[in-house]
Amino acid sequence: MSEIERLPYRLLTGPDDAEFCRRVSAALADGYVLHGSPAATFDGEHVIVAQAIVLPPTEARSRA
């Protein structure tokens, strides 16, 4: 997230596919940590997943 503000909390959502896994992996590499368990639902065609991520408190404070 180079030029985009790094929010202390984000909820990533999307189809349960490799691209979603890449987005979560990229956020983890950017300093975010998982917050809680992932959620999944079925929209009649696809499995849709959600994962909350947060910046650790020390990083979130340094960005405020």
TrEMBL record:
Pfam families: DUF1737. Residues 9-54 form the DUF1737 domain. This is DUF1737 domain-containing protein. It comes from Rhodococcus baikonurensis.
